[in-house]
Amino acid sequence: MRVGVLVSGRGSNLQALINAYNEGKIKGEIALVISDNPQAYAIERCKRHGIEYAVVERREFKSKLEFERRMVELLKEKGVELVVLAGFMRVLSGEFLKAFPMRVINIHPSLIPAFQGLHAQRQALEYGAKLTGCTVHFVSEELDNGPVIVQACVPVLPQDTEESLSQRILEFEHKILPQAVKWISEGRVEVEGRKVVVKGAIYGTLPVN
Ligand code: GAR
Hints:
By secondary structure, this protein is an alpha/beta fold. It has a seven-stranded mixed β-sheet with strand order 3-2-1-4-5-6-7, sandwiched between helices. Helix 4 links the parallel strand 4 and strand 5. It is globular, with a radius of gyration of 16 Å. The two termini are 18 Å apart. The mean pLDDT is 96. The site of glycinamide ribonucleotide (GAR) has 14 residues, from helix 1, strand 5 and helix 6. Its EC number is 2.1.2.2. Pfam families: Formyl_trans_N (PF00551).
């Protein structure tokens, strides 16, 4: 499967995907990375690994629609079949999603539906949650919502800061995002309403296989 990855910043989740492809864990390839931020460190990762990338900045376009159309055009040109939002900090419209029906996924640093939106880790700390985690889900028009593909659970420790908690969650993001892309690439993921069924997956604290 040809995958397109949308990023806005550091790109550590992109790196986890690159590593999984390089290790032969996922079939197919990253056909294109699009960054909406020309300063994103994710771009350095593309250069280092010889991955094609494009910078598409929102301010270059009159409307959100035109901005998104440009991204769709680039992704389609590269034959992308699955779009992965890996720290892409914009909400996509229904128009974009229609171009890739049930083929846009996102990684979010909480157990959705808890702590949606920005600063999910800070929200978990401020709420006093004792468990949080991360989620890979299909993207719907609602922010940080849509059918859940895989989640991992992480404890919130008494001494945690936003940074220490984010780091603990991130380690699991780097496991579940490649896992979800692998499953979809192998054609094992079926969606029935809100419920996602992964054929042959073994469910535990961290689903595998
Ligand atoms: C990750 O923690 C990701 O879950 C989060 O941004 C970070 C990006 O890190 N995404 C969201 O909060 C989306 N609502 P990365 O650039 O190192 O992958």
